[in-house]
Predict the structure.
Amino acid sequence: MSQQSASAHEVAGHFFRHEGAKVVAALTAHLGAHRLQLAEDVVQEALLRALQTWSYHGVPDNPAAWLTQVAKNLAINALQREQRWNEKQDGIATERERWLSAPADDVTHETFADDTLRMMFVCFHPELAAEAQTALALRTLCGFSPAEIATAFLASEAAIAKRLVRARSASVSWRCPLPCLNRLSCRRGSAESCTRFICSSTKATKPLAVIALCARISVTKPSDSSPCSQSIPPRESRAPLRCSP
Amino acid sequence: MKTEPTNQYMFLVRGPCKQGYSPEQMQAHMIEVYAWIDSLTKQGIFSAAQPLTPEGKVVSGGNGISVTDGVFAESKEAVGGFFILNVQTMDEAVKIACDSPMVKRGGQLEVRHIAELKRE
């Protein structure tokens, strides 16, 4: 007897959107903000493969781990094709290589929390206009499609798509320096506007998660800040960004 | 030995390229396929199904053996998976294919009658 009927009911609403967004955040955290486009591309491909494979046999026990593993493998392939393994900072390349090669068995909800917070910093970059920040956040953090964002903005899908393309082009030059506290305030303001927007949207799915993230941004301790020009060191060697208890 | 038609048909699943799908659309499609397989199972029609990964190799004989990387996901010709169903006639199999979510979303199902080798 097939397990299809049980699996179909287990697929929560907006599952693909949420899980996809989490994996984009994780990849961007480990590969760098300048690889945002790559992260989105491989996650889109991973979701397509999930659609293909899970349709036949149901959703696996740890779907987030499955998606992460597939996305990592696709990212490795893409990076090898580009032959971009040689970074000036060997530490980062080694750490990236280690993370990409590690199996995704231990992926849990907590794994994604810090990476999603980092993703917020990336989306609300001061270089971007407010509409671009919001569009990028809705796309990468919340997993809305350009068409869905267009409906909310009362703009055309083409306009939103262009906005996203420009935002991603800008991101290529970001090495994601850890923002100092002044810049953090600017980003917090934008993030809060985005949260209000998400909450008011009828398509809001996890506004509480986004509000929680904003709260964490607002209570980040000054000791967590670094000079603006310093780039983020490899993930494992740094304490995760957490709010003070 | 001769071949005899069985009461089983195979569907070979091809296309379309789903690159433009949003996560919501992908999820909706997956649930449609679940429901379709569910209903086929309840009718005793569903026998087997497997997805195929996009990566593959093509091994050809002739003048020497060649092995190439083949079958990329973008190709419309690439078989994405197969189904084996228990039905009596080609008409019935075709009708099931027409009602499938894959075809409704612009894909293609090649319908083949499975033949069995019988010893004389």
Summary: The radius of gyration of chain A is 18 Å. The CA atoms of residues 34 and 172 of chain A lie 4 Å apart. Residues 1-9, 177-184, 201-209, 215-245 of chain A have pLDDT under 50 and may be disordered. Chain A is about 65% helix and 0% strand.
